[in-house]
């Protein structure tokens, strides 16, 4: 099986490296072009205007593809481990993969539809990406606990669950605050009135 082939461990490392580079490169271009303030802009703000929007969209779409491959490898790994241990139902593993792939689709939507060009589609994509991501890592944490002690240590399971809890805690205020913001532009001039919608 693919998951037993030597060298597939580079895929998650490539995913993290590529995704980090996507955010950093688009941020640097946006700051140098004067499109965003350097102090903690929204990630989507750094991919709204050309030329950084093209770089952001391209790199995040590649990240979504790498994430899909990583999730599929994890799915295959669990299926292979499950052949001898039977620690999780195959349907549960498939459901977890589908949730993860839904999150990757959300990433692709975020990358393709810029924040100010099509805000409702962009926001739905972000909601799907982050929401599915939280559910995916929580399900993966639960699968890890079921596979203990043969395939995981409890320490690794606790780390995964801690990441799941932190993600959930971060997701809740994101939803609350995003629902209160109606953003129609990034650049504001002093004395400009805010339109409320």
Automatic annotation (TrEMBL):
Entries under Pfam families matching the protein: Frag1
GO terms of biological process kind: regulation of autophagy
UniProt topology in membrane: Multi-pass membrane protein
Keyword Membrane: yes
Domain of life: Eukaryota
Transmembrane portions of the chain: 7-33, 53-73, 94-114, 120-139, 151-178
Domain CWH43-like N-terminal: 8-182
Localization of this protein: Endomembrane system
Entry keyword annotation includes Membrane: yes
InterPro entries: CWH43_N, DRAM/TMEM150_Autophagy_Mod
GO cellular component, one term: endomembrane system
UniProt record similarity statement: Belongs to the DRAM/TMEM150 family.
Protein name stated in the entry: DRAM1 protein
Species this protein is from: Prunella himalayana
């Amino acid at each position: 099986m693919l998951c037993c082939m030597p060298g597939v461990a580079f895929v998650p490392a490539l995913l993290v490296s590529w995704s980090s580079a996507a955010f950093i490169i688009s941020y640097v271009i946006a700051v140098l072009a004067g499109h965003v303030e350097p102090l903690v802009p929204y990630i989507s703000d750094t991919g709204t205007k050309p030329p950084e929007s093209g770089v952001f969209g391209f790199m995040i779409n590649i990240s979504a593809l790498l994430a899909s491959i990583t999730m599929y490898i994890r799915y295959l790994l669990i299926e292979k481990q499950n052949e001898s241990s039977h620690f999780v139902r195959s349907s549960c593993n498939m459901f977890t993969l589908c949730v993860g792939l839904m999150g990757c689709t959300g990433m692709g939507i975020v990358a393709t539809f810029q924040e100010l060009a099509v805000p409702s589609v962009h926001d739905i994509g972000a909601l799907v990406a982050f929401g599915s991501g939280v559910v995916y890592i929580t399900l993966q944490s639960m699968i890890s606990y079921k596979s203990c002690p043969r395939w995981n240590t409890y320490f690794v399971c606790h780390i995964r669950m801690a990441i799941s809890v932190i993600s959930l805690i971060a997701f809740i205020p994101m939803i609350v605050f995003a629902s209160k913001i109606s953003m129609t532009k990034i650049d504001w001039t002093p004395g400009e009135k805010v339109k409320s919608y």
